[in-house]
Amino acid sequence: MNFSSKLLEQAVNEFSGLPGIGQKTALRLVLHLLNQDNADVDKFTFALLNLKNNIKYCKQCHNIADHAVCEICLSHKRDRTLVCVVEDTRDVMAIENTNQYHGLYHVLGGLISPMDGIGPSDLAIESLAERLKIGEIKEIIFAISATMEGDTTIFYLHKKLKNYDLKISTIARGIAFGGEIEYADELTLGRSITTRVPYENSLMR
Amino acid sequence: MNFSSKLLEQAVNEFSGLPGIGQKTALRLVLHLLNQDNADVDKFTFALLNLKNNIKYCKQCHNIADHAVCEICLSHKRDRTLVCVVEDTRDVMAIENTNQYHGLYHVLGGLISPMDGIGPSDLAIESLAERLKIGEIKEIIFAISATMEGDTTIFYLHKKLKNYDLKISTIARGIAFGGEIEYADELTLGRSITTRVPYENSLMR
After folding, report:
1. Could you point out which of A84, A106, A136, B164 has its C-alpha 20 to 30 Å from the C-alpha of B122?
2. Burial level of A182, CB count in 10 A (0-12/13-18/19+)?
3. Cβ A56–B5 below 8 Å, yes or no?
């Protein structure tokens, strides 16, 4: 693209470095911000810098938090014997939105991915082991994407945690509610048959 | 969405105010920036603030520029008798990319849209009339989208400019190269027949 201004080009290049944002979209976003009041643009950049400079991660579960320990870890209404292990804060938000889970979380902060140079020591795995040593936790649920990196991470975690007195489970895989069987991939469909559940258990409550 | 942090929520809300960015995309962008180095985030916000605070618009054509008059208006290789009237800087960039146009531009900064409260006085229309009074310009090309707002703007401009000794034209409408005739809308297809061009003129040069 031929920009009529170096300043414009720099701003567009910064925006097009964001995931899923190409140069045309970046230009649209930058021109939108350029048409806003100075105060609005200041608010935009302040919110970002404020987040970046003042962000805290919960000491216990490593989720993004406003204080040293997050609200979920502090809550007395939560089942403290149950911990759901997830990749990042988006997964916590997705699970919280279901209103079906009342235990605690442990946010790994990524998945093991040798291709990207991310090993176990880059993730919050040691601190999970530390939490387990206290002995309060009785069950671990892995809610991790069924990708190469996800499976590698689950495999590593399972090996590391198997000596603790724990129930270890993963979220159920299968055909989504509303999903059409004819369009399901063979792996999911095959597994959904071998891991079939009694009819009474399948009813929504 | 339930955010675990007020700071995160504020940043996501700012990003989801951008056109075409929903809350989930905004969260993805914010978490991406959160994983970057402080220096990278500073560079991102600096590029935006620098653009916003130091942006200049060409005195003559109103395109975004780094100096008081833009490079196109200053260029001696340009045909100064020809002016292409466009909505905004994105249209200038699109036309420049074709390498088919060697005249000057006039950037209106929007289109007449009574629904959005944008009238002729909000656009750079008076300054176009001022440019014409100098008498150097012989032809005006309207390269404006064929929407309701675009047509209104062209109609208004045409009325305003008809007393000048000018050739006034609009860009050709028709079936795009590579476009399939069976999928073209009736209006475009119908017009492409009534405004047909001699075969020799249709050959690419």
Report:
1. B164
2. exposed
3. yes
